[in-house]
């Protein structure tokens, strides 16, 4: 259907037809022999150097004449003393001794380091505890300071109220004295009438 729509859109365009599959026969090939490559030619001979005019001395008769006869024992052949240290055993022993001392010092230093690490850990924990206590104390102090300010205002208010009450009390005492004097005057007046 899509081909039909395309053809309708473009009427001048030709659509190729599908290719047909053809069977083609391949002729067989017969191998008649094996081809072998030829080896490379040998390298050319190296020409010998021309001989010098002096005759060559083929032997060394006096070369080893000054050396003593070898026995096959290393120490005897070298003529070494009994205290000769061929493998530096003395130096090795000294180095082993130094290594032992250093290992002991290392063990001591590691033990001290472990103790110091433990102390640092304990001090860190104590420091954290002190920090939390100090923070809580700082919060309490802040609350108390706020409370002191509030209390100071309250004391001022109470002081003014107290002063007002004292003034009222003085007035009431004056009124009370006036009333007492009136009562005693009326009491005397009534007792005189009787």
Describe this structure in words.
This protein has 194 residues and is mainly alpha-helical. The chain is 61% helix and 0% strand. It contains 3 helices and no strands.
Index terms:
about 190 residues; mainly alpha; 3 helices; about 60% helix; elongated
Topology at a glance:
Layout lengths: L1 H8 L64 H5 L10 H105 L1
Summarize the structure.
The protein is mainly α. The protein contains three helices and no strands. The protein starts with a helix and ends with a helix.
Structure summary, number of beta strands:
0
First-residue to last-residue Cα separation: 145 Å
Largest sheet: none
Strand content: under 5%
Structural class: mainly alpha
DSSP summary: helix tally? 3
Instruction: Summarize model confidence as the mean pLDDT.
Output: 78
The percentage helix is 55-70%
Shape: elongated
Radius of gyration: 65 Å
H/E element sequence: HHH
Q: Which residues sit in consecutive blocks of at least 5 with pLDDT less than 50?
A: none
């Amino acid at each position: 259907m899509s081909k039909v729509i395309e053809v309708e859109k473009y009427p001048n365009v030709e659509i190729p037809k599908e290719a047909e599959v053809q069977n083609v026969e391949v002729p067989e090939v017969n191998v008649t022999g094996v081809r072998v490559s030829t080896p490379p030619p040998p390298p050319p001979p190296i020409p010998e150097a021309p001989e010098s005019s002096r005759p060559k001395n083929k032997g060394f008769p006096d070369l080893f004449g000054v050396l003593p006869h070898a026995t096959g024992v290393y120490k005897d052949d070298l003529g070494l003393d009994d205290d000769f240290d061929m493998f530096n055993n003395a130096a090795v022993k000294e180095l082993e001794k130094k290594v032992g001392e250093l290992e002991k010092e290392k063990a001591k230093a590691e033990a001290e380091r472990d103790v110091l690490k433990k102390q640092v850990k304990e001090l860190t924990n104590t420091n954290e505890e002190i920090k939390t206590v100090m923070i809580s104390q700082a919060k309490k102090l802040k609350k108390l300071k706020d409370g002191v300010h509030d209390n100071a205002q309250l004391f001022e208010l109470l002081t003014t109220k107290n002063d007002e009450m004292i003034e009222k009390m003085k007035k009431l005492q004056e009124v009370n004295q006036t009333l007492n004097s009136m009562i005693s005057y009326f009491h005397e007046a009534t007792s005189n009438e009787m």
